[in-house]
Design goal:
Structural class: mainly alpha
Distance between the termini: 16 Å
Shape: elongated
Largest sheet: none
Radius of gyration: 19 Å
Order of helices and strands: HHHHHH
Strand content: under 5%
Length: 174
Amino acid sequence: MSVYRYHPVTVALHWIVAVLVLLMLGVGTFVLEPMDNADPDKLSMLATHRLIGLVILGLTVLRIVLRRFLPAPDHAKTGSAFLDRLGQAMPKLLNIFVILMAVSGMVLGRMSGLSDALAGTAPLPESFFEFSPRVIHGILAKLIMAMIALHVLGALYHQIMLRDGLFRRMWFGR
């Protein structure tokens, strides 16, 4: 049985994760990275960043699991074999990179003693960049930003150039 739209649970998870990932990328890049570790507000920001990162990880894993059980439309075609393959790979790659981002954040938190700092039993390190997972975390952030840009461009290509109504597939309704 072929369906035209994604299941409403799939749609809700897609948009919740999308908003949270964009929020986290923005806060991480423009707030946390330039903020000095001695700044008293940094700890509360990191606590929130860690919590939202764990939520994103959980929701991403849930999306992957549910994708196996919920109905979904066939892959949208563009007329280009390369673009079709890219379109099929992009959501999978985004999921993988989001999971790697969360794992690098957890490893960084563990190596840097973040839990102890949040508990008030140790200070934050002078810099998180002394830990290799921080470099990986930053590289993954840039790669995810590029992938999101490609994902959005692909959706706009379908919507504007191909006029195939692709956006309706990942939105609520009949």
